[in-house]
Design brief:
single chain; about 325 residues; alpha/beta; six-stranded mixed β-sheet; four-stranded antiparallel β-sheet; 11 helices; about 35% helix
Amino acid sequence: MPPVVSISKLNKIYDSGFHALKNINLDINSGEIIALLGPNGAGKTTLISIICGIVNASSGTIMVDGFDTQKEYRKTRGKIGLVPQELTSDAFSTVWNTVSFSRGLFGKEPNPAIIERVLKDLSLWDKKDNMMMTLSGGMKRRVLIAKALSHEPEILFLDEPTAGVDVELRKDMWRVINRLRDSGVTIILTTHYIEEAEEIADRIGIISNGEIILVEQKATLIKKLGKKTITLKLQDTLDHIPEDLNNYELELSSDRREIHYSFSTTTPDNNTQSSHVASLISTLNLNGIHFSDIDTKQSSLEEIFVELVSNNGDTNSKNAALQEQ
């Protein structure tokens, strides 16, 4: 099946000379949630704005469901719903009127049944007659999503959908996003919350300084770029690590009661990893070092993200390594 959104050689250079996006290539599959993860100023909002036709690209092409966004703007824009960062709305309009008006902007005939369904799906039905000015920040976020869904788009762009809301509301929004995906909507969201990407995304794209460093399935990304750390809790304190163990690159904790053994999960298979650990334990025993407990920790997405962004100069080689595997 061809991608529902295909971006090729996309660049954005402002009049000031600032290169906001650099040769972006990205395919988005129908029915997936893809999170574009990056720090503030990385180019996430600019990318979404260009796809949605709000900002003009300097070069490159964008296809939405097989249609060119520049040559067939109205057709492609009608397939897209956009939830912006800003909580802008008519303060004195009701929720019902706000969402209904948004549907009309896309040339859609009035359809109260669709507006009712959208409001109920987003737990806004009991607020339908409330004026926008009376709603909390979290409810206003929901209304923005309702507006974006009012014309029945196939693709939904969410730009920092949970910015400024508390943890409970954020998790509630995640449930809403998952329900939308289950209904067949393709979702592209930008976020700088690592937890958000790790919780709901199928694939993750990491953007830094206007470049997409890599795009990968979430589980595969963690597996390929992650590290595993084994912590051995010693029965007695250890003054130093014996020379016999130098090949393992061990680290002794500051209280000298733990040994940390870290290794990449990229290259060795499970059997090789197990043999390394078994060999380490055997060598510890030979040196009279005994442990009372063992703990294993896998790298989180946050640790991988920080490493990639902070070492941007080395990301091309990392990406090439990913492609080879």
